[in-house]
Amino acid sequence: MKQIKQRLHRYFPETTVWGYEGFYPGPIIEVQRNKPVVVKWINSLPDKHLLPVDHTVHGCMNTPEVRTVVHLHGGNVPAVSDGHPEAWFTRKYGETGPAFSTSVYYYPNNQRAATLWYHDHAIGITRLNVYAGLAGIYYIRDKHERSLNLPKGKHEIPLIIQDRSFNKDGSLFYPSKPEPPVADVYPSIVPEFFGNTILVNGKVWPYLSVEPRKYRFRILNGSNSRFYRLRFSTGQPFYQIGTDGGLLERPVEVNTITLAPAERADVIVDFSRYAGEKILLLNDAPTPFPDGDPVDPDTTGQIMQFRVGYPYFVHDNSRIPDRLCRIEWLSESSAIKVRDQELIESVDEYGRPILLLNNKRWDDPIDDTTLFQSVEIWRFINLTVDTHPIHLHLVQFQILDRQPFDVEHYKSTGEVVFTGPKVKPDLNERGWKDTVRANPGEVTRIIARFGDYTGIYPWHCHILEHEDHEMMRPYEVNFKL
Ligand code: C2O
Ligand code: CU
Ligand code: CU
């Protein structure tokens, strides 16, 4: 991890960012299923942070400003290599956090082919480290996926979508206090961050020249707080073939794709009927999601452009298969426990809004110990007014359903009274997931098998401003309860 200068737009001066291996976003790490890799993560960053650090939030009180620890999001990884938020280290490992044990991480890659990503996870400054640039794509590939004849090589491209704001000199802008300020803290964390500029793969509103043929895009929402609801200006569909944890059973044809922070969509897009056209990828997700301010159609309502060429040399023999793979559906009856997890809004000791899980803080004792290799159902009971993307480390899960309930009744009695029927997940959510949108006023149920490792792992909201401000809890996988 290094501080570097990169040109983020043709007409911008160079911007100072943080990158892996000298690049923002980091290089694509591409691995084969069941072939483990070892990565030594080295912090060569300066001692001073690029962005305003709030020393009142957890993990930041008497610790160095620049701390890093890398998490492989979506990875089935032993706890020592998971990137626990307190396993941080500073430049040259000068100082290390209480959970640090090694800088050499072991990734077994014993999971289905999938689009994972790696990003920083240092406690209390994850939002700043990721915003500075510490994120990258990690592909797991396997034989089955290769047999499908999907678009590959230069026709398979990751699209990492992020929002940023800039100062006049081209440097990154990140707020140092909420607007209007709510507390006498400076710098202060903000309840969420929405940038006014969209970047894809580290470029401001880029275009991509494409051939009139099929492409495979691995779309990642790598933003701090912003959700995206994507569609094409042509109205053409996406053929979604995969979710966070790998392939769907069958491709799903959709005209819009909603992605919360950390969610991924693996899609095939067919440009063959659009030779010579310019196509925009558009966004209309409100901020915050789902009932916040509308996007500005001229700025954050646009993501990027595709310039479709002419079909001189195009020989597209890739396919959109009818069937992609088989998914083993976890049955509700196999669950040995149902856990209720409340998403609650409260205020912190400085009077700032704070979002909590079960009204607990990161440092409170562990409440959730799961039995190694056992199946559980978790119910996310969202008492807040926004959608929170809830992410569990270690496991890939399945979404069972979402169901509206009476929030006021729950707040006074603690009893769930449903006000409508269960709604099955969207067709393009019916696969392996590691991050799920828990909507306001709904109970969202997921089912997972906890393993393949024991130890302590975080689960949290992936709105990074929430995660850094206590919307994160540890859970444990153990051989006994
Ligand atoms: Cu992508 Cu715990 O994070
Ligand atoms: Cu993760
Ligand atoms: Cu949240």
Written overview of the protein:
The protein contains four helices and 31 strands. It is 5% helix and 39% strand. Strands 9, 10, 11, 12, 14, 16, 17 and 19 form an eight-stranded mixed beta sheet that branches. The radius of gyration is 22 Å and the shape is globular. By secondary structure, the chain is mostly beta strands. The protein has helices spanning 126-132, 143-146, 407-413, 464-467, and strands at 2-6, 15-19, 26-32, 37-40, 70-73, 104-107, 114-120, 135-141, 156-166, 172-173, 197-200, 203-204, 207-210, 214-221, 228-232, 238-243, 246-254, 257-259, 264-270, 278-283, 302-308, 335-347, 353-357, 369-371, 374-382, 388-392, 397-404, 435-438, 442-450, 455-461, 472-478. It starts with a strand and ends with a strand. Strand 1 and strand 2 (15-19) form a beta hairpin. Bound molecules: CU-O-CU linkage and copper (II) ion (CU) (2 copies).
Primary descriptors:
single chain, 481 residues, mainly beta, eight-stranded mixed sheet, binds CU-O-CU linkage, binds copper (II) ion
The overall pLDDT, averaged over residues, is 98
Radius of gyration: 22 Å
What is the global morphology? globular
As residue ranges, the low-confidence spans are none
How far the N terminus sits from the C terminus, by CA atoms, comes to 39 Å
Strand-residue fraction? Answer: 35-45%
Secondary structure: helix percent = under 10%
Number of strands: 31
The class by helix and strand makeup works out as: mainly beta
Query: What does the largest sheet look like?
Result: 8 strands, mixed
Q: What compounds are bound to the protein?
A: CU-O-CU linkage, copper (II) ion
Total of helices: 4
